[in-house]
Amino acid sequence: MYGITPDLSRRLDNAQAQDGQAIAWDRFGIFFQEHENRAFVAALRPGGAAASQGARVGDVLRGTDIRGGDSSLSGVLSAFATTTQRADSSILLYVFDGNDGWQREYRLTAAVGNADIAGIPPSLRDHATSRPGLMAILRHDTTLADPAEITTDAMLALQAISRHVKACYGPDAVTIPVRITRTTTTRDGFGNYKYSETDESDDALRVRREFADWAQANIRTYQTRSISSVRSAVLELISQQGCDGDGFRQLESGLANVMNVTLPDGAPAARIGGIPDSPDAFIAQCYPLQLQAMQSRGLDVSERAMAQICLCQEHAARVLDDAELYASLRNVDTSYYESNPELHDRFDDTFSSCYRAPEGSDLRQRAEALWREMNI
After folding, report:
1. Rounded to the nearest 10 degrees, how much is the dihedral formed by the CA atoms of 371, 372, 375, 376?
2. Quick check: 75 and 37 in contact, CB under 8 A?
3. Alpha-carbon distance 108 to 49, whole Å?
4. How many whole angstroms separate alpha carbon 326 and alpha carbon 331?
5. Arithmetic mean of pLDDT, 180-188
6. Dihedral pair phi/psi, residue 290, rounded to 5°
7. What is the pLDDT of residues 263-295, one digit of tens each?
8. DSSP H/E element including 93
9. pLDDT at 127
10. Which of 108, 145, 172, 259 has the most C-beta neighbours closer than 10 Å?
11. Cβ 21 vs Cβ 78: under 8 Å
């Protein structure tokens, strides 16, 4: 149980709100209490619709799409009661975030019968619930947001995926050139125009082949701002799951739905001794985790160096043919390595020969190809 134990025997003055209390818990897995005439989330059922779709214990209601700004306990529960009578049985909650204090929103949809609950991957919940476009993508429901919002967030997701090796965007990825123009305008202290400067640069968007037509048609929406909550969330998703996790597949499936294309069924990579044939998934998961680990320690690190470290760790673990070492290093976990000192000399020698490989060698060429592929 998340939060308190819900008191479903609680009696309310409003009959509709009384019904809504049972519906909210039975169908959505959410229980509310009231403080200063505002409902707040007091409990969530683990695995329930609300817990899987963005709700947090402590969220303070600002209103619903059904009852507008009525954030009282009676008003919120009455809104839940009407979900059984509407063609669209979902409900949109407007909240103050219980942890961070900022405003966000999320749409809750209960499973019907034995249907699966449409959950949101944990690393995306904060961002998806405040971004209607991303929510629509993840929920495979384009009615949840305006087309422009969906297009913007789809492009941001593609830009995040493009930063990773081909494990994320397929072996037949298509590179779409992007010409970026930035204009800087200078004004005096009174706001009067003085002059403008224009800079142009080239970038590239790398997408899986099925997404190429949509990306090319919508390349005008390519985002150049340095900070994006959607890009950050997708990068976090990849760092947690790699490119073969359920959350990433849900995102890709949602993108395919938006683009009206069909993705081939993904077959698991062939394995020999527990180690995949391709190093791509290892590097895709290791690289963002390495960056985060160094940055969390306040270190200013080279992206190229982090990518090469992952490449050479993968190479060394493969040469040693140690599946447990391979799996742990993929997650930037050195505990297996540290607990097996007999591996140290062989691993360190193999890693060093890879990391210090001379110009023109196969390993050096692999590192340079990786840098180009990751655009770093």
Report:
1. 30
2. no
3. 7
4. 9
5. 81
6. -60, -45
7. 887 544 433 446 877 888 788 778 888 877 787
8. strand 91-96
9. 62
10. 108
11. no
Decide if 134 contacts 149 (C-beta within 8 A). no
Residue 316 banded pLDDT, cuts 50, 70, 90: very high
Element (H, E) at 344: helix 344-355
Strand, helix or coil for residue 44: strand
3-class state of residue 176 by DSSP? strand
304: tokens are 């190229």
Highest-pLDDT range among 116-130, 286-300, 325-339: 325-339
Whether 1 has a pLDDT exceeding 60, the answer reads no
Q: Which two tokens stand for residue 346?
A: 């062989």
Q: What is the DSSP string of 5-20?
A: PP-TT---SSHHHHHH
Q: Where does 142-191 show beta strands of DSSP type E? A: 174-187
Q: Which residues are CB-neighbours of 343 under 8 A, at least 6 positions away?
A: 320, 322, 325, 337
Q: How many CB atoms lie within 10 A of CB 175?
A: 13
DSSP string for 223-285: ---S--HHHHHHHHHHHHHTTSSHHHHHHHHHHHHHHT--PPPPPPPPEETTEES-SHHHHHH
Mean pLDDT value of segment 107-130: 62
Read off the tokens for 271: 């394995």
C-alpha span between 264 and 253 (Å, rounded): 10
DSSP 204-234: EEEE-GGGHHHHHHTGGG----S--HHHHHH
Half-sphere exposure of 99 (CA within 13 A, CB side): 5
238 contacts 288 by C-beta, under 8 angstroms: yes
pLDDT given for residue 143 in this prediction? 82
Side chain identity, residue 56: R
Q: Which value, in Å, is the radius of gyration of the alpha carbons in the chain?
A: 25
Question: What is the token pair recorded at 20?
Answer: 């809504």
CB-CB contact of 144 with 132 (8 Å): yes
Alpha-carbon gap, residue 256 to 167, rounded angstroms:
17
Distance CA 2, CA 298 (A): 34
Highest-pLDDT range among 83-87, 167-171, 305-309? 305-309
Burial, 18: exposed, middle or buried (Cβ in 10 Å; 0-12, 13-18, 19+)? middle
